[in-house]
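Field log, afternoon session.

UNIT: design team B
ACTIVITY: writing a sequence onto a fixed backbone
BACKBONE:
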């Protein structure tokens, strides 16, 4: 039953919200820590930490590609675009999880299942 409705408690919502927001500053580290520590405690928190982790890894890959493309000068134009997209999507995810909703990032590689 993959479509079960998960009702998170307030602590899970708060941790998920902070996890999404911390990704804007600390990249994938906070979501990795939360996922490792809480994946067996809360299905909602495990799902959201995994989603944040996948997105931050995607952002990291995008920055690496932009760094390679910086050799031909187009990469410098991609840095601010990737940065703004990261901040906007993380804020949207934080708002969604603060309401107890499940958030899925668009344009995200789902590397961790």
């Amino acid at each position: 039953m993959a479509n079960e409705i998960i009702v998170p408690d307030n602590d899970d919502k708060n941790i998920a919200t902070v996890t999404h927001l911390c990704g804007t500053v600390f990249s994938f580290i906070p979501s990795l820590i939360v996922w490792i520590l809480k994946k067996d405690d809360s299905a909602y928190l495990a799902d959201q930490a995994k989603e944040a982790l996948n997105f931050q890894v995607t952002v990291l890959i995008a920055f690496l590609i932009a760094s390679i493309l910086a050799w031909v000068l187009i990469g410098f134009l991609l840095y601010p675009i990737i940065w703004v997209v990261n901040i906007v999507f993380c804020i949207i995810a934080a708002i969604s999880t603060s309401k107890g909703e499940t958030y899925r990032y668009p344009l995200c590689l789902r590397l961790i299942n």
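LOG NOTE: The chain has one domain: 10-97.
NEXT ACTIVITY: expression trials, pending approval
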